[in-house]
Amino acid sequence: MKQKLPGILLLGLFFLTGTGCTTEIWKDNSYSPEERADDLLKELTLEEKVSLMVDQNAPIERLGIKEYNWWNEALHGVARAGRATVFPQPVGMAAAFDRDMVLDVFSTISDEARAKHHYFKERGERERYQGLTMWTPNINVFRDPRWGRGMEAYGEDPFMNGVLGTAVVKGLQGDRTGKYDKLHACAKHYAVHSGPEWNRHSFNAKNIKPRDLHETYLPAFKKLVIDGDVRMVMCAYNRFEGVPCCGNDQLLQDILRNEWGFDGVILSDCWGINDFYNENAHATHPDAKTASADAVLAGTDLNCGDSYPALVEAVEQGLITEEQLNVSLRRLLIARFELGEMDSDEEVEWSKIPHSIVSSPEHAAKALEAARKSMTLLMNKDNALPLKKEGLTVAVMGPNANDSLMQWGNYNGTPTATTTILQGIRNALGNDAQVIYEQGTEWVDNRIFKSVFDQCISEKGQGFSAQYWNNPDREGEPDVETIVNTPFNFHTGGATVFAPGVNLTDFSAKYKSVFTPEQSGEVFFNFYVNGIIRLLIDGKPVFEHRAGHGGRKQEYKMETEAGKSYEIELEFAHHMSEAELNFNIGYMAKVDIPASVARVAGADVVVFASGISPFLEGEEMGVDLPGFKGGDRTDIALPAIQKEMLKALHEAGKEIILVNCSGSAIGFEEAADYSSAILQAWYPGQAGGQAVAEVLFGDYNPAGRLPVTFYKSVDQLPNFQDYNMANRTYRYFKGEPLYPFGYGLSYTTFSYDQPELSKTSISTDEEASLKVSVTNTGDYDGEEVVQLYLQKPDDKEGPLLTLRGFQRIFIPKGETVEVEFQLTEDVLEWWNADAQRMTPLAGDYRLLVGGSSQVQDLHEAALTVVQ
């Protein structure tokens, strides 16, 4: 925490400056952020104050205050602002069970964020995704595998969410001992929030047992506030016990502010205050002014959205006082001063981080290491893995085999380069003749995309003629004219122009061609775009998109007639940050399983890259396919078309190695029958393909562990909308999972000695330690994830066991390492029914240590806690 300057020093500065009463304290960085905020508050009109309480702060020119946009993202790399290093999706990083790795990853991300911020600022850009307030981490408990956004969180265990979330915060914010903070992180979404996506604006999480609230939904937030000193908390869209979370006194005042002592900024999820008064949402308030007043009074300082401008009217009508607004605005001003955002770059040490570090080779190496550590081997029949490279012919198949966008996950930046699974295998073998590529299927559809870009002929030849203007409105004569004869793959990151002579920003383009299809049917125009795009067919506009959230996948489809010519025109303009335009055109052809099996007949082994995609599971999506609803899943089984292909390959005698990419648990029961090995690769980021190949061929020994339970089917799950924890997650699930929490295989084996306690009986205010020796008994050097669980046998309503420690350790083959856990207050706390809180609690406990949450993998030590 920053310390205020002593009063005597401030008084000395006051007289030394000779400025007397005319000193503008808020402009003087020798004063504390709190004092500067108090001074600036006196200078602002009511209208100006309100303008500073929305995410896009307008400039206040009379005072020289520049505009500032609070909205920025860094879920697993700087997001939606062009070029950046893309690390594995958080659920994949959680699979590494490695706090230090997560800290290092987010220290790297914060370097890139600072460098990009100052790069943009030097060019006069202060837009969304260019600021210093990063709205991450997502530490909601992944309580149900159907939740589409679960991939953004750190698994189903509240302790793990807290430990890894705190590492995220510390990596982003730095140590906070310097004059300025590096960045500000944001714990979200507070609280009791994990789907469904389709009704989140009206959903009421109700009848939540106090035990579930304090034992499952709140611990990670508490840890980030108290141990992580997180500077922002985002309140969730849903209601909690009938009251919208962003206006909920119990959550925001009683617990967050008063009990935990949080003194940072609370912000609403975007347009979440609108839900207070929208008739199709919560509709708990009549209008924007009453909703906004209640939200501020409850403690929500910043509105992402457009409701808070009504606060001017709310003050005029007596719904809230200007002094009450000042409480919230003061916190916002303090944050801006803490970041140095109102001071010149020359005074901010973080501005010295060079822009050249963004997406640098050094950062790419860190992305590879994170991807390696996330790899989780779930099945390895008869030691099918690792594969031998020599003389091997590998067929690479599946919807995720050659899909770089899938690997990026969601809330992502754009890497300089991405190694797909196909490319990783080709690189590993070093001989393309050893690799047969046959995609075979899409994720869910029984059709597959077939490009017909080569059927587009422009006046300049095959492909599209291209004209570029070095202005955003295509004014005057084009500055550059050329031709594009392959599917578009343009990105201005790394100072890479769309074509020689074209600006990096503030440019526009027009692409023209004539498409003459060889067959009739529905043709698809596929885009991945960051900018403004418009598609015209025969001169008529049929599709347009303006990217407001970074690069997004878009699609337009239309019926075509064989032999008929269609004039295709694309208009593009740079909009914000770095421009990006990927484009292809093609048909969806029916999947032909026998033909695909025949094409891989010569392969010794099939690597099938199965799973789903962040274009199917995610935030409030409009996906309407079997097994998906609004970004959530209705079925966790591997999609039917993929199982059909696996079955056919198996019946053809092929050995199948399943490499699954998903952000959530997949039901593999049938797929496992057809496969020799299953590697869960998550959404592994830019280096995922290399990490997969290294595991497949034994260049890296996997040690990832499941941060979520893999169930057999949805039949094992309670109602998705029931937020009570009974029979949810490994902590309460009484059935038999497919693969349990904490589970993962290695190419070596480990044995554990009996754990030893420093004390077998302690008082509630004492600490102890547990030591256990772990030996690598196999033939490979490897890493083991040593996991510590707590159990209270006489508590029949509590968790069956609950994670309270984990360490990822390297052990050379044949060697033994001693691992020690400190049994501190947060490790030994338990539900205290009298206090209605989690506290150290007297009783008999079992400490269980081992390589997964399975009982047969755990070794027990008894501990008694006395009052």
TrEMBL record:
Native organism taxonomy: Bacteria, Pseudomonadati, Bacteroidota, Bacteroidia, Marinilabiliales
Top-level taxonomic group: Bacteria
Domain (PA14) ranges: 459-601
Protein name: Beta-glucosidase
Keyword Hydrolase belongs to the record: yes
Keywords associated with the record: Hydrolase, Signal
Annotated source species: Marinilabilia salmonicolor
A family per Pfam: Fn3-like
UniProt record similarity statement: Belongs to the glycosyl hydrolase 3 family.
UniProt-listed GO biological process terms: arabinan catabolic process; xylan catabolic process
SUPFAM superfamilies: (Trans)glycosidases, Anthrax protective antigen, Beta-D-glucan exohydrolase, C-terminal domain
One term of GO molecular function: alpha-L-arabinofuranosidase activity
InterPro entries, per the entry: BXL, Fn3-like, GH, Glyco_hydro_3_C, Glyco_hydro_3_C_sf, Glyco_hydro_3_N, Glyco_hydro_3_N_sf, Ig-like_fold
